[in-house]
Amino acid sequence: MSLYELRGVSYRYGRNGQAVSALADVDLDVEAGEFLAIGGPSGSGKTTLLNLLGLLHAPDAGTIRLDGRDASALGERERTRLRRERIAFIFQSLNLIPVLTAYENVEYVLFSRPLSSAERRRRTLDALAAVGIADQAGRRPQCMSGGQQQRVAIARALVRDVGVVLADEPTAALDQVTGRAVMDLLKRLNRDRGITFIFSTHDPRILAAADRVVHLADGRIAS
Ligand SMILES: Nc1ncnc2c1ncn2[C@@H]1O[C@H](COP(=O)(O)OP(=O)(O)OP(=O)(O)O)[C@@H](O)[C@H]1O
Ligand SMILES: [Mg+2]
Asked: Is the pLDDT of residue 15 over 80?
């Protein structure tokens, strides 16, 4: 059974009159443990596809199966629950909270879980250590470099231990060397922890780091 199975998936923005077709008739299988890139020019549908994989939108047509379950058939509440159990996001705008330290930015996503404070602390420190910034735990995002902030966002995605991480242009805000280091880190976490990473990029050098690339053009899979 594949992790994801998409069949005939289409998505349009805007309901009345001027609807924009963002994805059309996409078929895609993703296996657990893959390190998969989504490439394609601006406007080709990369972010839309990640949002659908993240169960943030329901497709207008077609089906999305996650762990064999038809997510498109679930109600809003069930879909939200499945998302929380299985999927973490790293957004391009990292969504770090400026008044919180790196430690607190990672820890707060665990507050919705029934964990003891000691267990929460252990997991938070483990996630910060996994991305190599345990020594920065007490710093706030604005006192950190772009690459360090990206690591906080990655730690926050890891700490929930969900198995699937979706990242929209995770290196776009970084210089080449830092971007490369972040990709090496994601690849190591993929290899060592078996986490599935699906990320978008327009950077050919970043695409080259993927095990497999799905190219989008005008909302369709080109290759
Ligand atoms: N909120 C929205 N409302 C209307 N149309 C949208 C919206 N978001 C995206 N679109 C349109 O859907 C299509 C796909 O957009 P999407 O953001 O998925 O592309 P992308 O490949 O992520 O682009 P980029 O590389 O610039 O981030 C584009 O034609 C875009 O204009
Ligand atoms: Mg995008």
From this structure: no
Q: Write b or e for each residue in 35-74: b if 16 or more Cβ atoms lie within 10 A of its Cβ, otherwise e.
A: bbbbbbeeebbbbbbbbbbbbebebbebebbbbeeebbeb
Q: Based on the number of CB atoms within 10 Å of its own CB, is 20 exposed (0-12), middle (13-18) or buried (19 or more)?
A: exposed
Compute, in angstroms, the gap from residue 47 CA to the centroid of ligand 2: 4
pLDDT of residue 138: 97
Domains of the chain (ranges, CATH numbers): 34-56+85-221 (3.40.50.300)
Q: Is 43 in the pocket of ligand 1 (CB under 6 A)?
A: yes
Secondary structure letter of residue 35 according to DSSP: E
pLDDT digits (tens, 9 = 90+) for 55-86: 998 999 999 999 999 998 888 899 999 999 99
Name the one residue in this structure whose structure tokens are 């910060």. Answer: 128
Q: Which atom of ligand 1 is nearest to the CA of 202?
A: 25
* Residue having the nearest C-alpha atom to atom 6 of ligand 1: 13
Which residue's C-alpha comes closest to atom 27 of ligand 1? Answer: 42
pTM for this one?
A: 0.92
Q: Using pLDDT thresholds of 50, 70 and 90, give the confidence band for residue 41.
A: very high
Cβ atoms 18, 12 nearer than 8 A: no
* Residue whose CA lies nearest to ligand 1 atom number 11: 22
- pLDDT score recorded for residue 73: 85
The terminus-to-terminus CA distance of the chain in angstroms comes to 23
Average pLDDT of span 198-209: 89
